[in-house]
Amino acid sequence: MLKTAIVNQKGGVGKTTVTLELGAQLAITGKKVLLADLDPQANLTSGLGEKSNTGATVYDLLTNKASFSETVKETATENLFLLPAERKLAGLETELVNFDEKEFLLQKALEATNDFDYAFFDCPPSLGLLSVNALVAANKVLVPVLCEYYSLEGLKELLKTVKLVKKYLNPDLLLDGLVFSRFDNRLGLDKYISDSLQNSFGSAVYKARIPKNVTVAEAAGRGMPASIIFKNCKGSEAYKRLAEEFSEKQEAYK
Predict the structure, then answer these.
(1) How far apart are CA 41 and CA 216, in angstroms?
(2) Which of 5, 151, 165, 218 has the lowest CB atom count within 10 Å?
C-alpha cells in the first residue's frame, strides 16, 4: 500500500479536493483506495456524504478506542473507502501532550491493514501533531499549491518540516511532487510562479494543472466526487490527468 500525505499548512489550497478527486479517479480505474480525513473540519468526510457524528472516527482510531476495521467506511463510490474525521480531533494534541511516541499513532493504526493499493491522508492547515502523524506514516508527500507569493513562503516552511521528519522520524519519506490548484493560465502571476517552481523543482512539479472549477465545488456539496457525478467537467478531466500522471510516477517508484 502506497501512502501519500497531502499536506500544506496554508488553508484554502485545495488539499481536501485533491485528496477526494485523486482518490476517486484512481478508484474508477479499479484501484482500492483509502482516504483518511485528519482535519477536524471534516470536509473530506462530508464531501463523501458521511456524517462525523455516527460511528467511530479517526479520533477513536488514534486514541485506541476503535480498531481500523471498526473505523473504516465504504463510500458510495466503488473501491473508495474512508476513515472519517470529527471535531474532537482539534483537541488531540493537547490530550496527548505527555503521550510517548504520539507522532507514530497513525502509522501503528495502519499496520493492521495492507488491503489497499493507495492511501491518502488529508491533512489540516497546520504543521501540528496530525500533519506530523501523516508524514511519519506516509511514503510520499504531495503538496497542492496556489500561484500566490504567500503560498511560496508557506512552501518553504513545509519543506523544512518534511526534511526534519525525514531526518528524525521517517527516513524513507520522499517528496512525490507539487500540484497547482485553482490554476488560471490566463493570469501572468500564475504563469510566473508556476515557471519559477518548475525551474526549482523540475520533474517534481506535476504537469497536470487543476483549474478553479465551480462544478467540482458543487459536487462536494452533494456528497459525491465530481469525478463520479460530473465526469466530463473541466475539473474532473484535470483530475483524471493528475491520476494518470500520479500512477505513472508510482510505477517508476516501485
Answers:
(1) 19
(2) 218
